[in-house]
Recover the amino acids of this structure.
């Protein structure tokens, strides 16, 4: 897909600077705030609109299909865990060494979080669990943001959602969480769920109060 070149190596000349990596990580963590904002925006609307039903249904479908089904069937370790599951040379060693060095200059929260995730994976329990990389739910849910913004006909939100989705895809690779294909798969799952939810809501429209 990337002509035999690792994705992070393609991006390194533009993004592999400690302060830039710090900003990438800040933006990646901002995903928690954005997904919460979208959920509350649609989940607590005064009227039960078709958009509200479609977003919430696609949200649930995306998480169920992406994690419970595909995440189990294609259970995988992302670049940050490559050395733990594959013997021999680690093609992501350079990326992970860079992230650890950057973390000594600026806080790169992905690094200690990845260490914590692996320890809880080995222990079988913990406050933060789950190491499967395929598909990327970070990327998948940002596609729902775009779809929701487009249907809501809010131009500024559409622009923000597109930029945010691209930044999350880049961040997932630059921070060693995912292979780029994980993001592509997450996007495809989310878009399919959006279409399925639209089909369902069109046949079962909300009833006016």
């Amino acid at each position: 897909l990337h002509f035999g070149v690792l994705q992070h190596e393609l991006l390194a000349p533009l993004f592999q600077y400690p302060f830039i990596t710090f900003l990438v990580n800040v933006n990646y963590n901002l995903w928690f705030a954005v997904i919460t904002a979208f959920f509350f925006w649609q989940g607590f609307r005064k009227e039960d609109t078709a958009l509200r039903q479609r977003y919430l249904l696609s949200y649930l479908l995306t998480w169920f299909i992406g994690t419970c089904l595909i995440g189990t069937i294609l259970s995988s370790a992302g670049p940050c865990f490559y050395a733990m599951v594959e013997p021999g040379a680690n093609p992501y060693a350079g990326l992970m060494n860079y992230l650890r060095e950057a973390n000594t200059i600026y806080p790169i929260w992905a690094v200690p979080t990845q260490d914590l995730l692996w320890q809880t994976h080995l222990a079988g329990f913990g406050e933060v669990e789950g190491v499967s990389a395929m598909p990327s739910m970070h990327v998948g849910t940002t596609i729902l943001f775009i779809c929701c913004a487009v249907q809501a006909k809010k131009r500024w939100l559409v622009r923000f959602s597109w930029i945010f989705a691209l930044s999350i895809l880049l961040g997932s690779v630059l921070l060693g969480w995912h292979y780029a294909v994980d993001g592509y798969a997450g996007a495809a799952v989310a878009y399919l769920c959006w279409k399925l939810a639209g089909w369902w809501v069109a046949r079962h429209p909300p009833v006016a109060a």
